[in-house]
């Protein structure tokens, strides 16, 4: 029987999902994105070469893997083609292996304008979005006024609906935000102008997945963002505008929940967050700067510096529950090398101002380098103790440990396939 494996970020994104989707798709026929958009930035390091993917699924470097984009993904068409062309320039054939659902909402220039204008007005209450128009595009979808990829092939309907949409949103841009409106031409240039190029890649993702499920193929479902950025379960309102948890798969690409066999939670050995919002274990001291510097914690999409803190096992326990996580993959363990002590937040105590105060378990760190370890027994005893501490706190087994950005810098404890 084929196996369907789900890859989900456990905290606020950038846990190393891209690296593990690349590793897992070696044994898969297809990989599917089911939510989010080009707010994602997934990094792969293969044969010394770094590739950052935003919309193209992270199985693309394996020539045998079909890469599907489900209806739950909001698509910026110019950014999609930019990415395709970059991959082609580095010698990767992509167009024949990409399949985009006609149900994907299209991100248009007014979505980006609205995203930016709202953030500006919020001032120090800003969400710290990626400025990609993600939220407004999902709003138009839910309001049932949005344009979808399939509409590009009915130009008359597309143009007239676009005109209505622009009228509506320009009113808000001009009268409420006192900012520049968008033009019809600029919107057409970012959408309809690509219709002919996009057409061969558009097809029935649901049917394709149905076929794969019935033909014993292995499929990887690639989550974007992280569980704590989920619009319902996350740290609202400091979240993204899609459901980022495993429950989003069925609605986001059309595979029923019974077909999902294994949920792999990707977790950093410490915690990071980019953008605003609560972060109970955030560190503002020397250790925080160590994590940012050694972990090279700058956003793959916007280049912003990421906030860093200790491992949050209290949040992880809840995340394991809401995703029904089967196993964990701990990434960036090497970044903790050389710290005197290491801590994980076991639970929160509610403070007098109702903020969450983390209660830590602290153990000795390790001084030897873990970079590029291939077996658990290659790790210093203290590093193994740290992994045990995480495993015991969460009650879920660790399947992989990652000690460097490269494909090979990986310890496989148990293969989910
Ligand atoms: P994603 O959004 O979850 O795919 O993660 P990102 O690609 O945004 O961020 C993860 C970053 O950490 C990337 O630069 C990876 O190359 C890098 N990375 C992944 N695993 C490891 C690891 O085990 N050690 C180190 N040092 N870097 C890693
Ligand atoms: P990957 O897939 C980290 C964050 C933004 C902001 C909030 C809302 O690489 O893990 P949005 O533009 O989505 O409306 O921004 O969500 N955010 C991410 N943070 N990794 C991501 O993706 C993110 N995608 C969105 O920084 O706080
Ligand atoms: Mg990322």
Could you describe the 3D structure shown?
Helix 3 (109-122) crosses helix 4 and helix 3 runs parallel beside helix 5 (155-176). The protein is 30% helix and 19% strand. The mean pLDDT is 97. It is of the alpha/beta class and 417 residues long. Strand 15 and strand 16 (410-412) form a beta hairpin. It is built from 12 helices and 16 strands. Bound molecules: guanosine-5'-diphosphate, 6-O-phosphoryl inosine monophosphate and magnesium ion (MG). Guanosine-5'-diphosphate (GDP) binds next to helix 1 and strand 3.
Provide a quick synopsis of the model:
It contains twelve helices and 16 strands. With 417 residues, it is an alpha/beta fold. The protein is globular and about 65 Å long.
